[in-house]
Design a protein that fits this description.
The complex is a heterodimer of chains A (367) and B (280). Chain A is built from 8 helices and 20 strands. With 367 residues, chain A is α+β, with helices and mostly antiparallel strands. In chain A, a hairpin with a 2-residue loop joins strand 4 and strand 5. Chain B is an all-alpha fold and 280 residues long. Chain B has one domain: MetI-like fold (Orthogonal Bundle). Chain B has 14 helices and no strands. The two termini of chain B are 38 Å apart. Classes of the chains: A alpha+beta (367), B mainly alpha (280). Chains A and B meet through strand 6 and helix 2 of A and helix 9 and helix 10 of B. The complex binds adenosine-5'-triphosphate and magnesium ion.
Chain lengths: 367, 280
């Protein structure tokens, strides 16, 4: 077990593609870190640099106290689980697990003991004699995990290990991975582009965008205080409503649409206002407006997903699109006008130019 | 539907006959004695001299120097066939391994150099090749027969294509598992290439077995004669004052056909099994 330290790590591929642009992260011993971001943001590249499969263009990577920039993957004391599992097709499950141990010159009896223990933990004991092709996707995934845990490494590296599984299995494996990591207390770096996976697994999330860190924090921190509009739109489903607003003679108005009642005193003349769908209350007729934001929304579509419905609408006729979340099975008509409101403390403000989070709204007094 | 099937079968039967009749003819003729073949031509019926002919062919020394039997020739052919097949597979696998997995300078260039040698078959470069072998004193030796022809552009090309289709993650997983280049090659790449090896083995064994021109040039010592050469020798030498021993030549031809058939049958089942199971 060990901490992992990344110090302004950069990766420049041939052809001057800068895939990772100076990332620094301190990962504590035993921590579960999830790297999340859209396709092509450099997650895999970063993980592969930690694994030693990719050269580091500049910066430092330390595992424990050891600088590993030039250390071979096999000598870094890490284990990796690949998206396509990368099991050795011609070897039995047993040999797949044992291969790395054999290469390290570990005694046969010790190997046997470790393989059987891992097989027991992962419930793959009965498949030990089979070849990978004789297993289902989920079983192969377990074997891939088994290959990592028999090594008893100081860190696990996962590159989208669940993305080849169907939705149900993914949820199940997600919980198992989390439990396994909690039991083994092995430092883990997990790459995914699935924000739900990221939220449920992570001790801390690292949100990446175009090779840079947008935000590092616990899932709840990232969810409740997104550092930028990018994070706000990436974490949470359905995504946060981001409404550009500007100060006019009549007060704050949305860029597109109307019917918004929002008052704060600020020197800025424009903001992006962020509102999570679940923070938007649908008010009954004539309900009083509290401090915060109120708006009229014209319903353009309803998506029932069972326990709740997502209501698509616009701020006034043809204005900015917004999504609301309504619990239960209430019925809404297309074209119906709803009064909505968000509490003061649920409103996020972002700088219009930089997209960065602005000062806390509670510090701003209503006008 | 019915008609088409009938036609299909007719074509297949015709094809089978086309292949089998000459073989049967050769085999039947080899069971007669030399006299009746000389008088009545090639035979399509059982002649009853099977054991006589084959025993003579296999064990009786023949040739100018009376130093080579059919068994020796069979042995020589085997060495040539196996030497070719194994040598070519080893060399071309190593070459393809280097080209695909190691980023050395001019790797692509070397690949194309190897590839263009496909345009230079043995017949084109036979004189320089002969010069070199003679200069090295490798005439009349197995190494002289095998080594100069052991480089294979075809094999290298096929193995290269195959290695390129092996997922990169497998290499990476092996690297993390502590397998260096040699271990990765032996533990993972070679077992994965089984079907490819079987296919190339078939082709190269038959190619080596059927060599005629090269052995004719390189070996003058009759103890190095292969079956394919021996066949011609029988007819050329044994004429003399007697009648030609056509039956014995036919027996030798039948013997020369057998090993490649066996190899194809054995490796083909491997090959097909590998294709069906598709281990990737
Ligand atoms: N070998 C390479 N040569 C050049 N550019 C590369 C190479 N590998 C990746 N890149 C580029 O680096 C960037 C980051 O790639 P990376 O594979 O890390 O993305 P990712 O975040 O893992 O995406 P995904 O979610 O699709 O797997 C991409 O723009 C990609 O095109
Ligand atoms: Mg990736």
């Amino acid at each position: 077990m060990a901490s992992i330290t990344l110090n302004t790590v950069r990766k420049i591929y041939a052809g001057n593609v800068e895939a990772v642009k100076g990332i620094s992260i301190d990962i504590e011993d035993g921590e579960f870190i999830v790297l999340v971001g859209p396709s092509g943001c450099g997650k895999s590249t970063l993980l592969r640099m930690v694994a030693g499969l990719e050269d580091i263009s500049s910066g430092e990577i330390l595992i424990g106290d050891r600088l590993v920039n030039k250390v071979e993957p096999a000598d870094r004391d890490i284990a990796m689980v690949f998206q396509n599992y990368a099991l050795y097709p011609h070897m039995s499950v047993y040999n797949n697990l044992a291969y790395g141990l054999k290469n390290r010159g570990i005694a046969k009896s010790e190997i046997d003991q470790r393989v059987r223990k891992a097989a027991e933990i992962l419930e793959i004991g009965e498949y030990l004699d089979r070849k990978p092709r004789q297993l289902s996707g989920g079983q192969r995934q377990r074997v891939a995990m088994g290959r990592a845990i028999v090594r008893e490494p100081s860190a696990f590296l996962f590159d989208e290990p669940l993305s080849n599984l169907d939705a149900k299995l993914r949820v199940q494996m997600r919980m198992e991975i989390k439990k396994l990591q909690r039991d083994l207390k092995t430092t883990s770096i997990y790459v995914t582009h699935d924000q739900l996976e990221a939220m449920t697994l992570a001790d801390r999330l690292v949100v990446l965008n175009k090779g840079q860190v947008e935000q590092i924090g616990s899932p709840m921190e990232v969810y409740e205080k997104p550092a930028s509009t990018f994070v706000a739109s990436f974490i949470g489903s359905p995504a946060m409503n981001l409404i550009p607003m500007k100060k006019t003679a009549l007060g704050w108005e949305p860029e597109q649409g109307d019917g918004v009642n929002f008052d704060i005193r600020s020197d800025a003349s424009e903001f992006i206002v962020g509102l999570r769908p679940e923070d938007l209350e649908i008010l009954g007729d004539g309900a009083p407006l509290g401090a915060g934001l109120a708006a009229k929304v014209v319903v353009t579509g309803v998506e029932p997903v069972g326990a709740e419905s997502y209501i698509h609408g616009t701020l006034g006729e043809g204005g900015q699109e917004v999504i609301l979340r309504a619990a239960g099975k209430q019925h809404y008509d297309i074209g119906q006008v709803l009064s909505i409101a968000a509490k003061q403390e649920k409103i996020h403000l972002f700088n219009r130019q930089t997209g960065k989070r602005e000062e806390e709204i509670s510090a701003l007094q209503p006008a | 539907m019915k008609k088409v099937q009938l036609l299909d079968h007719a074509v297949l039967i015709l094809g089978a006959l086309f292949m089998l009749v000459p073989v049967t003819l050769a085999f039947m003729t080899s069971t007669h004695d030399a006299m009746s073949v000389y008088k009545d031509g090639l035979q399509m019926t059982w002649g009853g001299h099977f054991t006589d002919t084959y025993k003579t062919v296999l064990t009786e020394a023949s040739g100018f120097t009376k130093s080579v039997t059919g068994l020796t020739m069979l042995y020589n052919s085997m060495i040539l066939g196996f030497g070719f097949a194994i040598g070519k597979i080893v060399i071309s696998m190593l070459a393809a391994y280097a080209i695909v997995y190691f980023r050395f300078r001019f790797g692509v260039f070397f690949f194309w150099v190897i590839f263009t040698t496909l345009l230079l078959p043995l017949e084109v470069r036979i004189l320089p090749s002969y010069e070199i072998v003679q200069g090295l004193g490798m005439m009349n030796s197995y190494s002289g027969l095998i080594i100069p022809l052991i480089a294979s552009a075809t094999g290298t090309f096929y193995f290269r294509q195959f290695f390129k289709s092996v997922p990169d993650e497998l290499v990476e997983a092996a690297r993390i598992d502590g397998a260096g280049p040699v271990k990765f090659f032996i533990d993972i790449l070679v077992p994965l290439s089984k079907t490819m090896i079987a296919a190339i083995f078939i082709i190269m064994f038959v190619y080596g077995w059927n060599q005629y021109l090269w052995p004719t040039l390189i070996t003058t010592d009759e103890t190095f004669f292969t079956l394919v050469r021996g066949m011609k020798q029988i007819l050329a030498v044994w004429v003399g004052a007697q009648i030609p021993e056509t039956n014995q030549a036919m027996a030798l031809a039948v013997l020369a056909m057998l090993p490649p058939v066996v190899i194809v049958v054995i490796f083909q089942s491997w090959f097909v099994k590998g294709l069906v199971e598709s281990e990737k």
